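User: Here's a structure from my thesis project, written as structure tokens. My advisor, Dr. K., wants to see whether a designed sequence matches the one we expressed. Can you design one independently, without my sequence as a hint?
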């Protein structure tokens, strides 16, 4: 019944660090290819490729305090035959996102880090330049190690989202970013 929803998908993340005394340069990348539901508003599994690369530098100021500088470029592409209610997802959603980030990191415990993230982001759409935007985000929060009882990230902060088209509304206000991360070392039936 749902043959059009099938696909062989891959979701790959890679991060390579080069630890030195107080400096740790890193490079990272992401490649997500397959049918994915774009969001709550678009209720279809559309075939897309989400890829990106970046890098940065962790600077250790003390044994528990550090600063991270990073830059990333991400590319989102839908196939030309993907539509939702007659609208081409390729023409509406294909875009490139560039970001620059600066973070303050304070280790509270071996498994918990307090972080203040700041980021400048620029989005450029392939077919609808009226949707181009730039924004700034400042978000304090916590990162919990995967080996902690509760793993993941919790950030709440401020975002300014400015569209380049004067006819589209801007946004300034509170935003949140919450990720649950669990590490299962071993699983056994009882």
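Assistant: Designed independently from the structure alone:
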């Amino acid at each position: 019944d749902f043959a059009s929803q099938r696909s062989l998908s891959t979701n790959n993340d890679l991060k390579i660090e080069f630890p030195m005394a107080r400096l740790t340069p890193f490079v990272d990348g992401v490649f997500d290819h397959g049918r994915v539901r774009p969001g709550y508003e678009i209720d279809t599994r559309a075939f897309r490729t989400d890829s990106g690369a970046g890098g940065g530098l962790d600077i250790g100021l003390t044994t528990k305090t550090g600063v991270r500088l990073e830059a990333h470029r991400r590319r989102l592409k839908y196939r030309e035959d993907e539509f939702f209610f007659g609208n081409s997802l390729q023409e509406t959603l294909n875009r490139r996102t560039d970001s620059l980030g600066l973070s303050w990191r304070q280790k509270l415990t071996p498994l918990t880090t307090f972080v203040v993230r700041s980021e400048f982001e620029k989005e450029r759409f392939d077919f609808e330049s009226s949707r181009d935007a730039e924004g700034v985000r400042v978000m304090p929060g916590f990162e919990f190690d995967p080996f902690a009882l509760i793993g993941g990230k919790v950030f709440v902060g401020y975002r300014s989202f400015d569209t380049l088209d004067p006819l589209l509304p801007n946004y300034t206000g509170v935003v949140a970013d919450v990720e649950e991360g669990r590490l299962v070392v071993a699983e056994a039936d009882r």
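When you compare it with your expressed construct, this may help: Confidence is low (pLDDT under 50) at residues 183-190.
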